[in-house]
Amino acid sequence: MKLQQFRQLDQLVVKEYLGARGNWSANEPHLRLSWSNWGFGTEDLADSVKRLAHCGVMYVELHGNRYGPDLGYRGPEVRKVLEDHGLAVSGVCGMVTPEQEFASLLPHVRQRMIDYTRRCIELCVETGGSYVLFGAGAVGRPIRYDDNEMARAAETMRIVADDFVMSGIHGCIEPIRPDETSLVHTFAEADYLISLINHPGIQHFNGDLYHILSGEEHIGTTLLKYGERMINLHLADTNRRALSSGMLDMDIVIMALYARNYQRRVAYCTAEPLGPGANPFVALFGQPNQTVLDDLVMRTAACFYERDAELREASDDELLRAYQVDK
Question: For residues 128 and 79, is the Cβ–Cβ distance under 8 A?
């Protein structure tokens, strides 16, 4: 029986993984698991970090909550909490809203986004992170302003690109599904926006499995194509909940990342299971349910580490048989 198209593409990922694995060293590093903490709502950072450490998640992607000069995390306080539990910061998740966005028609709204991004960069430097991610347009605004959104976004991003270069922090553009934002829904569109920006300060991608499911042909081949310029990948199952709670083939994701030597760079797999809905920012102000959040982290971390170990320990023949790949 002829395999469906996505199964044939799965086989391509397996072959690429096995080829890359043949060049591994005896002490080949593992993929780094991080967690985007803004989905924990109003929970105290110390409580979030304690939970992550208990489940073996050793990195945290900080909520970019410096919405004003007097608001948000303070570097020394964050570092102390992280040091107490042995965690490190992967990066900062920027929040792009209709009140502060790169593509806005209103100059003062774009200026707010410029100022906000600079504060996120400062937070990232202070806490030892390596990237700040952001969307091109506001989440929660799926209707476009006009045909010049992309050009305005590029022009505004170019202004903060110098700040990224001077700080040594990577600027990462995240493609987001059209239900949530009006522009840059695919990696190809993000790549085009980067070409318009034309600046070394913004040259990387932040991927998100939930958005990839919406905008791309195949998760694995998308990661193969763009993985070398991706610094972070947001993780959630097909229902945008904990890994292992949906129908995601996590093995394909992991193999595609290893095929592009993701583990050999300062790059992260960051859980961000926010649940379905057109505007995930409602999670920002939610009251934390400790039992629910404990289960969310435990299930996701257990799935990630189990599948990583299974794939690294599986023989070539086992993987070829599992995906019906001819030798």
Answer: yes
Dig out the tokens for 183 from the structure: 């522009």
Residue of 133, 59, 132, 144 whose CA lies nearest to 103: 144
Go through the chain and tell me how many residues it has: 327
Planar angle of CA 45, 50, 55, nearest 5 degrees: 130
Backbone phi, then psi, for 166, in 5-degree steps?
-65, -30
Number of structural domains found in the chain: 1
Q: Where are the strands (E) in the chain, listed by range?
A: 33-36, 59-63, 88-93, 131-134, 170-173, 202-208, 230-235, 268-271
At 181 the three-state DSSP class reads strand
The residue range of the domain holding 91 is 30-322
CB atoms within 10 A of CB 38: 20
pLDDT in tens, 70-91: 999 999 999 999 999 999 999 9
Tokens of 237: 């199952």
Judge whether 184 lies within some domain. Answer: yes
Q: Is the dihedral of CA 71, 167, 100, 172 positive or negative?
A: negative
pLDDT tens per residue across span 119-164: 999 999 999 999 999 999 999 999 999 999 999 999 999 999 999 9
